C-alpha cells in the first residue's frame, strides 16, 4: 500500500529520487546532512535534473533550506505521514565538473 501511494505522487519525468538520507543520532547538528545535500544538489544542478524525496516532518526544514518544495503529505492509515518534496535544478552558478568536457545530457533522451 505504501509503495502504491508513494508511486502515485512521484513525477513521471526523468528525475533523481533521493531515497534515503540518514545521519547517526550522535552525528546530528554538526553539518553532515547539509554537506551531503549540498554535494547532491551541485551534482544535480550540473546535469539539470530535478530531484524528489519523501521525508518526515522533522526533516522538512532541512530539505526546504536546500531548495526542496513541500508537496501535499501522504496520509497513511495508522502510520507515519510521509512528506513528498521536489527540487528543481538551480541554474545560477551551475558549472560542469570538467569545463573542457560538456555535461552529459543523455537522460533527456529518455522521453524523446
Characterize the structure shown:
This protein is α+β, with helices and mostly antiparallel strands and 112 residues long. It is 26% helix and 13% strand. It has three helices and four strands; from the N terminus they run αβαβαββ. A four-stranded mixed sheet has the order 1-2-4-3. The longest helix is centred in the middle third of the chain and has 15 residues, at 32-46. It is globular and about 40 Å long.
Name the features.
alpha+beta; 112 residues; 4 strands; four-stranded mixed sheet
Q: How many strands, what sense, and barrel or not for the largest sheet?
A: 4 strands, mixed
SS element count, helices: 3
Q: What is the tally of beta strands?
A: 4
Q: What structural category arises from helix and sheet content?
A: alpha+beta
Order of helices and strands: HEHEHEE
Round the mean pLDDT to the nearest integer and report it.
80
Tell me the Rg in angstroms: 16 Å
